[in-house]
Amino acid sequence: GGDGAALWRALEAMRARGDVARIGISFYAADPIVEMAARFRPQVVQLPVSMVDQRLARDGTLRALADRGVEIHVRSAFHQGLIFVDPDRLPESLRGKREIIARLRALIAATGVAPVALALGFLKGLREIGAVVVGVTKAAEFVEIAEAFARPPEGVDFAAMALDDPLLLDPAKW
Fold this sequence. Notes:
This protein has seven helices and four strands; from the N terminus they run αβαβααβααβα. The chain has helices at residues 2-17, 33-40, 55-58, 61-67, 98-111, 115-124, 139-150; strands spanning 24-26, 44-48, 71-75, 129-132. The chain has a four-stranded parallel sheet with strand order 1-2-3-4, with helices on one face. The longest helix is centred in the N-terminal third of the chain and has 16 residues, at 2-17. It is globular, with a radius of gyration of 18 Å. The two termini are 29 Å apart.
C-alpha cells in the first residue's frame, strides 16, 4: 500500500545519504516474493528455506532473486526444530502428523548424518544462498553448527526429505 511505498522511499533516502549500506525485506514463503523484489528492489532478502521446506528452491524463487542481484539470507534452517523432534513427543497441534514426521526422522536417521549437518548441507548446496541465519542457546551449539557447515555431507537425497503438508510447512500454525 501507500505506507509501504513511503517507508521504502525513506529507507532509500537513508541509503543514498550513506546512513545504511543495504536495505532488505524479510518474507514468508507464501508472500509474492519475486514481485515484491521487482517492485522495491531490495539488496537483501531473508527467507525461510530448509531441507523440509524446499518450495522456494524448487519454484525458481531463489534463482529469480539471485538473477536480480539480491543477496539471499535464509532463516528456519532447522524448520523450527521439526527435524529434531521425537514423533512420540509432538505438541498437540502436530499429533495428527506423527506418521509423516516419523517417516522424515527415519529418512534422516538412514543417512547416518546428524540432522544439523544434513540441514546445513542442504542449504550450503544451494548456490543462490549468501548466508544462513541460525540461533543458538549455548556455545556448544554454535561450535556444532559451525563444524557441520564446514563439512557438508555428500550424496544425500534431499528431495526425499521435502514435505508438502500445508500444516507442517507453516510453523505459525503449530
